Structures are given as structure tokens and as C-alpha cells.
Amino acid sequence: MTIDEERKYLHKMRIHYWGAKSRKQRSELLDEMEQVTGKHRKSLIRLINEELARKLGSKTRSSGYFRLSKRT
């Protein structure tokens, strides 16, 4: 399952999770999501409660290594 597919699945499941009327129903939904995605419960809860849209990475990168002085 790719990250995008996982996010789509979690988006659908978060609607059911928020609509659950009891703790038992939420627990069952978390069990199902845990089996499908392979993630731990705590990380699933974090993902459900935050924005599921992927964040863009930085387009430019610094060189990372600068040589300050040359030894002769």
C-alpha cells in the first residue's frame, strides 16, 4: 500500500471513527486500521487527528558540505 493509498483509506476511516458512538466501536475501527496499514495504534490516532494532506518537501537543497580552508 502506497502512502497516497494509505492516506485515502485513513481519510475514509476517520469519518467513521469520529462518528463512532462508543469507545468499543472506536477500538474496533483502530484494530481494523492497524491490520490494514500495519501501523501502531498511537500513530494511527495521531494521523486521524491531524491533517492528512501530504506536505511538500523543500525543492532546493543546500550542498551540505563546505570546505572552509585547504591544507597545503
Would you give an account of this structure?
With 72 residues, the protein is mainly alpha-helical. Helix content is 57%, strand content 0%. The protein has three helices and no strands. It has helices at 3-19, 23-37, 41-49. The longest helix is centred in the first third of the chain and has 17 residues, at 3-19. The chain is elongated, with a radius of gyration of 20 Å. The model has no long low-confidence stretch (mean pLDDT 84).
Question: What's the structural blueprint in terms of helices and strands?
Answer:
Elements: H1 3-19, H2 23-37, H3 41-49
Helix pairs in contact: 1-2, 1-3
Number of separate strands: 0
Radius of gyration: 20 Å
Strand content: under 5%
**What is the count of helical runs?**
3
Overall 3D shape: elongated
Structural class: mainly alpha
Poorly predicted runs:
none
Helix fraction bin? 55-70%
H/E series, N to C? Answer: HHH
Beginning-to-end CA distance, first to last residue? 54 Å
Characterize the largest beta sheet: strand count, sense, and whether it forms a barrel. none
Mean pLDDT: 84
